[in-house]
Recover the amino acids of this structure.
């Protein structure tokens, strides 16, 4: 650019002094640019070194710190803090660098492993459940609750304590032998509600028109961008799956607390959060009221230790280092392949990116030691194209060895697409699934450009040369092409699911149309085979591969080391944590907009945020 600028001036002015001045200006600009570039590179180098050394110091510190030793007569301090996801990295080199007042994620796999180890380890006498800062979906809560119920079969105790019980936390606490509340505490039991957010008026004010192409009466993912309220069809399906999910939560609570179904509903309608602790006690929601110091004395009495003695305890993190019988990969291995997040086109390891996952599935297919695969799906969908690529990889895998899907919080739309051709599908009763339908969403920013005084013109050689121009609406011909493309995609989606599930296509169409179902409802109409958690999926995989009880289980994809985490997605991870630190509750809205930006135009997914609480 500088060279062109210099030549143009030189040709228009032969004055030698003028040329010298221009040369001086050019050199100044060049030197300033080079110097600025070098300074920027040096600063980036030092920032990277500080990050690297900080993470390395944290990692080496953890390596050299005293190793945890499980003492006799201990309790598992099951402190469930933050958001629970299926699986988390082994370690986080960034938290120590920027710090955070917000709870971090916990892995469901780590929690389940800790409870199972505690059940079978004689040094653990019981569980002290602390779930006051818990954030988890209904299906995840059901998975943990099932493990707690299984733990009680050992004859060991479970006691629960909180200053304030959230509804999710109380759902877990209700399994305890004794539920204890602070005398000044609160308990929230309110039922389930969905509060979708609509952006149409906001988009109108910005001059943005969302051009929608969809198939499915119930495909409501586009409604937030085109309406200011729920459609009747969407309200019908949301009401259906919320009530079905609540029936399971309500039933579990009633059985655990010796209440009737009607009593649970009555308590949920009484706004328990505003009721006094004495009311909660008399209603049998809690067993006793104690301050935390008194609760610890009670815990000491269960362990039969002196009041002034420290309570021996192990956390979920501690239990990772508590070894069970050595497990090595054998010729009879069952693989658990975790797929959680949005389905995207790409080759990265974050979310469910098609090229990366196809490669991981291919590795499992070619590994003769792996006799079966449990495909753990926790996704609301995403790119229809990427979903098809993963579907094909699962089809190839299934031709060689059994594939059993374990559905987590949700396996809907694209998440159901990539699950539909498995040999068996297992879901929790409250899993969100189905939503067989796709849509296309194409923004038109003409109104925005007009508002800010920007105008565009087009010169083209062919009719559709400017297809995709965001500064104009699609014309009638383009709209027809887009709608036909979406309808073809829906027909393929329907075909894949019908063939995978062995259901006639016209029959499956009755349950499609983008409609969302709970796992329990999906079982009744044949979209899933059985209700249960990931452990049941593993048992089925062993049965299908004739392994009996002689097998080991390994998790995939491989978790990266702290240094790999640092060197590969460092910028994205650090940026995300920093943004979350400063945006607080607005972080989720920011991520919603980010997700929309990254999605393909043709989507197989449920609404961007179900917002169930």
């Amino acid at each position: 650019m500088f060279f062109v600028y210099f030549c143009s001036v030189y040709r228009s002015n032969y004055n030698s002094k003028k040329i010298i001045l221009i040369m001086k200006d050019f050199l100044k600009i060049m030197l300033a640019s080079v110097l600025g570039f070098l300074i920027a590179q040096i600063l980036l180098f030092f920032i990277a070194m500080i990050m690297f050394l900080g993470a390395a110091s944290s990692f080496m510190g953890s390596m050299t710190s005293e190793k945890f030793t499980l003492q006799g007569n201990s309790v598992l301090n099951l402190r469930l803090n933050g958001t629970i996801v299926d699986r988390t990295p082994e370690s986080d080199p960034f938290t120590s660098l920027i710090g955070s007042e917000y709870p971090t994620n916990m892995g469901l796999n780590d929690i389940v492993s800790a409870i199972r180890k505690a059940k079978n380890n004689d040094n653990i006498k019981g569980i002290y459940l602390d779930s006051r800062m818990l954030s988890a979906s209904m299906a995840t809560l059901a998975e943990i609750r099932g493990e707690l119920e299984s733990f009680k079969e050992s004859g060991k105790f479970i006691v629960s304590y909180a200053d304030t019980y959230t509804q999710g936390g109380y759902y877990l606490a209700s399994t305890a032998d004794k539920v204890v509340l602070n005398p000044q505490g609160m308990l929230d039991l309110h039922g389930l509600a969905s509060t979708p957010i609509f952006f149409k008026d906001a988009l109108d004010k910005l001059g943005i028109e969302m051009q929608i192409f969809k198939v499915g009466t119930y495909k409501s993912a586009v409604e937030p961008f085109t309406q200011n309220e729920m459609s009747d069809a969407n309200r019908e399906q949301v009401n259906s799956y919320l009530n079905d999910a609540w029936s399971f939560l309500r039933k579990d609570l009633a059985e655990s607390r010796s209440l009737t179904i009607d009593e649970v509903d009555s308590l949920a309608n009484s706004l328990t959060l505003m009721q006094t602790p004495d009311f909660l006690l008399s209603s049998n929601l809690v067993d006793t009221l104690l301050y935390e110091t008194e609760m610890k004395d009670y815990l000491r009495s269960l362990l039969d230790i002196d009041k002034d003695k420290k309570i021996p305890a192990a956390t979920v993190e501690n239990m990772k280092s508590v070894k069970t019988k050595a497990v090595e990969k054998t010729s009879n291995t069952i693989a658990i392949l975790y797929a959680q997040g949005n389905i995207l086109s790409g080759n990265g390891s974050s979310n469910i990116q098609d090229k990366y996952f196809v490669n991981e599935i291919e590795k499992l297919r070619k590994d003769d030691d792996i006799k079966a695969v449990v495909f753990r799906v926790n996704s609301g969908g995403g790119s229809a194209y990427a979903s098809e690529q993963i579907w094909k990889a699962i089809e190839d895998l299934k031709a060689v060895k059994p594939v059993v899907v374990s559905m987590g919080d949700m396996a809907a739309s694209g998440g159901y697409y990539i699950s539909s051709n498995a040999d068996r599908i297992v879901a929790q009763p409250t899993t969100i699934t189905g939503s067989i339908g796709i849509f296309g969403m194409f923004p038109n920013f003409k109104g925005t450009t007009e508002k800010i005084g920007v105008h565009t013109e087009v010169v083209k050689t062919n009719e559709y040369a400017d297809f995709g121009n965001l500064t104009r609406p699609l014309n009638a011909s383009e709209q027809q092409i887009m709608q036909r493309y979406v309808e073809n995609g829906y027909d393929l989606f329907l075909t894949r699911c019908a063939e995978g599930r062995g259901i006639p296509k016209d029959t499956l169409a009755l349950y499609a149309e983008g409609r969302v179902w709970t796992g329990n409802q999906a079982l009744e109409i044949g979209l899933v085979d059985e209700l249960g958690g990931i452990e049941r999926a593993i048992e089925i995989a062993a049965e299908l591969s004739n392994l009996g009880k002689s097998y080991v289980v390994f998790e995939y994809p491989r978790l990266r080391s702290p240094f790999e985490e640092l060197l590969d997605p460092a910028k994205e991870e650090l940026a995300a944590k920093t943004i979350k630190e400063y945006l607080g509750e607005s972080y989720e809205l920011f991520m919603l907009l980010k997700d929309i930006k990254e999605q393909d135009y043709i989507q197989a997914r449920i609404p961007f945020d179900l917002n169930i609480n």
Q: What stands out?
A: The CA atoms of residues 392 and 418 lie 9 Å apart. The domain at 333-567 is CATH 3.90.226.10 (2-enoyl-CoA Hydratase; Chain A, domain 1). DSSP finds 24 helices and 21 strands in the chain.
